[in-house]
């Protein structure tokens, strides 16, 4: 497989090599691909968690009577009222 890089990508790889952290361009690309894989896995897990929370919220809302916005806000404000 051959890959064409933009000049910015080549410069990024060169900067990484000059930092001394990597010895070859392949090491830079390997690290980048590993991090991309980790990021995609984390994103998929986040989407799964959010979907579960949405499902739980929908289920809860189906089990409880609706609450209008004013009542909701007043309830929150009541919790923060100073007590004397």
Automatic annotation (TrEMBL):
It comes from the Bacteria. InterPro entries: ParD, ParD_sf. PANTHER family: ANTITOXIN PARD. This is Uncharacterized protein. It comes from Planktothrix tepida PCC 9214.
């Amino acid at each position: 497989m051959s890959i064409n890089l933009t000049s910015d990508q080549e410069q990024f790889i060169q900067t990484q090599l000059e930092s001394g952290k990597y010895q070859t361009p392949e090491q830079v690309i390997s690290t980048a691909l590993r991090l991309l894989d980790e990021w995609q896995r984390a994103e998929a897990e986040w989407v799964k968690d959010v979907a579960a929370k949405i499902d739980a919220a929908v289920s809860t809302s189906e089990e409880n009577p609706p609450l209008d916005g004013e009542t909701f806000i007043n309830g929150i404000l009541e919790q923060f009222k100073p007590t004397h």
